[in-house]
Amino acid sequence: MVTRLLLFVVLLLPNFVSCSDAVDFLYNGFRGANLTLDGTAAVTSDGLLRLTNATMPEKSHAFYPDPVRFKINRSSGGASSFSSTFVFGIVPEFSGLMSGHGIALVLSPTQDFHTAIGSQYMGLFNLSSNGKPFNHVVAVELDTVQNPEFSDINANHVGVDIDGMSSITSQRAGYYVNGELQNLNLTSGNSFQAWVEYDGESNQLNVTIAPMGMIKPATPLLSRAINLSRVIFEHMYVGFSSSSDTFRTIHYIQGWSFMTNGTARELDLASLPRLPRRRRKKNPIALVIGLPAGALVAVLAMASALVVVLRRRARFSQMLEDWELAYGPQRFQYRDLYKATQGFRDAEVLGAGGSGTVYRGVLASSKEEVAIKRVCHGSRQGMRAFVAEVACLGRVRHRNLVRLLGYCRREGEFLLVYDFMPNGSLDKFLFDRRSSTLGWSCRFGIIRGVASGLLYLHEEWEQVVIHRDVKASNVLLDGDFNGRLGDFGLARLYDRGTDPQTTHVVGTMGYLAPEIPRTGKSTKATDVFAFGVFLLEVACGRRPVEPRAAEDEVLLVDWVLACWSRGEILEAADPRLGGAYVTEEMEMVLKLGLLCCDPLPAARPGIRRAVQILCGDVPLPKFSSNYLNSSVMALLENEVFGGVSLEEYPVNSDTVSFLSASRH
Ligand SMILES: *[C@@H]1O[C@H](CO)[C@@H](O)[C@H](O)[C@H]1NC(C)=O
Ligand SMILES: *[C@@H]1O[C@H](CO)[C@@H](O)[C@H](O)[C@H]1NC(C)=O
Ligand SMILES: *[C@@H]1O[C@H](CO)[C@@H](O)[C@H](O)[C@H]1NC(C)=O
Ligand SMILES: *[C@@H]1O[C@H](CO)[C@@H](O)[C@H](O)[C@H]1NC(C)=O
Ligand SMILES: *[C@@H]1O[C@H](CO)[C@@H](O)[C@H](O)[C@H]1NC(C)=O
Ligand SMILES: *[C@@H]1O[C@H](CO)[C@@H](O)[C@H](O)[C@H]1NC(C)=O
Ligand SMILES: *[C@@H]1O[C@H](CO)[C@@H](O)[C@H](O)[C@H]1NC(C)=O
Ligand SMILES: *[C@@H]1O[C@H](CO)[C@@H](O)[C@H](O)[C@H]1NC(C)=O
């Protein structure tokens, strides 16, 4: 008996001593669990930890409430071993197309992520903090969107992220059986188990995933030698981070166990809360058939109700085809948009142009302010491809791009829903003498912002997006006067009622690169040309074409060039600035504008180079005013206008389009 008791104590003692600092917790479901939640994270009544549920870009976090000790001595020694396992499920509302961004298991010195961005940053970093060693964040990501800016390998992978979203190692989701990688589909809506293990002695981090119920595969999916001591502080919080997007995806954690200095306890899989079954739409017809035939009165009442409903329907009718169901949350109900704008009242009109009328609205569901653009379209040809494009562009997220929230289709009409920008468009501040103007630092900030937005479209997003219509009136200002480029990729739509197959030139007079009428194609270089004109507009406070000006001042590009040839380029600066600008910046913007307007596409800088120049990372290449001499400009003028007098074109900010064939 005594020996038994002794043995008991001996067995308990070392355990107890090392446990004083070691952390060990286990959640078989989260009912009543004390976690620190933020964003959309919540524990459901079933005990599921639901990280996201929104159709809006949201971020959410769920942390174990107390900091976990990872080092015994603050100033020396390596990080402790740790091990964790959890069961998760990612349930996209509409399978197949697009989903939210996934889940990450996170070790972080803080639980406060209010400055982080959701979407592709998974609620962990923002543009300036991403990749910076001061973060001290270790994350294991289950990533379901491919973000080329982080060199993601595909839209279904597992990666290890240190201080930034570019993984130090990653692998397509799967598990090894006899050395062969079996694929897993993270967004299939099924439950999977993940194991994350770090050995503080050998400095090895292993990540393994498998379908729930399978025993842990012997070979980890990822195994990486890394000394986390540099990253991990003495105390860190552990938890999950997730972000959703316009496509409703629900990220669930069903159970979680964690331990420092040991192997995390096994989850009791049988007792974990189940993922909810996917809802199927009920068939209302079944209900009607089920009614007893005798209830004639009821049927009559229903019939008259039906008439009312049908009448209402006609008013709110919208076009919807089977394939569109997949676009889910990107598709708005016409009824909702009608209500949001109080029936498209004139009082709600924000602006009208060649491309359509824009209304202000407030969505009843979210109380969110939006801008709704109504565009006419005639043909239904190519509509499917076009809607796919809209859905795709709806996923573009950048702080210098106006977010496209979704669309709605009606007979002969297309509605696009955007984020509302309280300060309206930039052209008002530049050209409207009744409006106050913007100072130079604000203008320079807008220029840099627009450049970075365009860079994102051209080179950093998953597909190359050609804007096709860069101009001051397409630059909108948010509450803080940050410039955001709107209407990207969509200029083709405004080419109303025509066959999308024929080559059309789309853009706005004065911003069109000279090669466009010849080739009929918009390219990155034509966007850069328009960006160059935009730079001059902002610096000079003048429209690109002023038909009423003296002959040699009609074209803005020509005029700036003439000022430079006289050796007085600063004369081109907007007089409304009253000389209050940084001379070097003004000169750089004017010259860069001219460089981007080079008639030869190959001579224009790429947008990345333009951004580097604007940020002062790279000096402006040396070139003189002769380089773009006026004879070349004359050629440009002839090509653009093809001998047609200017009066035939609307030279305001409206988008115009014309058939290239008719000009040659
Ligand atoms: C983990 O175990 C090592 C070796 O036994 C010990 O030095 C360290 O203090 C332990 N760490 C924690 C957090 O308990
Ligand atoms: C949850 O944990 C925190 C941190 O340990 C503690 O302060 C708080 O009292 C706990 N809340 C409940 C309801 O147990
Ligand atoms: C999503 O979360 C919000 C905030 O936690 C909640 O109000 C809303 O009811 C949830 N929506 C669904 C569909 O569960
Ligand atoms: C922590 O490390 C420092 C420097 O190596 C050493 O002087 C100190 O005694 C250590 N403290 C503990 C509690 O081990
Ligand atoms: C890991 O880094 C820590 C701190 O930089 C150092 O003390 C430790 O010796 C390193 N471990 C190995 C195995 O290199
Ligand atoms: C993953 O599963 C979803 C839902 O079943 C399916 O729509 C999608 O195509 C699958 N993805 C891959 C890469 O197999
Ligand atoms: C980005 O995150 C860092 C660190 O969390 C924070 O200090 C900084 O203010 C954030 N920047 C922005 C623009 O929110
Ligand atoms: C990681 O995986 C390797 C290779 O399978 C294995 O030898 C090692 O023990 C594992 N380390 C941990 C911490 O699980």
UniProtKB/TrEMBL annotation:
PROSITE patterns: LECTIN_LEGUME_BETA, PROTEIN_KINASE_ATP, PROTEIN_KINASE_DOM, PROTEIN_KINASE_ST. The keyword Disulfide bond does not apply. SMART domains: S_TKc. Its EC number is 2.7.11.1. CDD domains: lectin_legume_LecRK_Arcelin_ConA, STKc_IRAK. This is non-specific serine/threonine protein kinase. InterPro entries: ConA-like_dom_sf, Kinase-like_dom_sf, L-type_Lectin-RKs, Lectin_legB_Mn/Ca_BS, Legume_lectin_dom, Prot_kinase_dom, Protein_kinase_ATP_BS, Ser/Thr_kinase_AS. ATP binds at residue 373. Its main location: membrane. It comes from Colocasia esculenta. Residues 1-19 form the signal peptide. It is an enzyme of class 2 (transferase). One of its GO terms (molecular function) is ATP binding. It holds the Pfam family Pkinase. It comes from the Eukaryota. It is a single-pass type I membrane protein. The chain crosses the membrane at residues 285-310. In the N-terminal section; belongs to the leguminous lectin family.
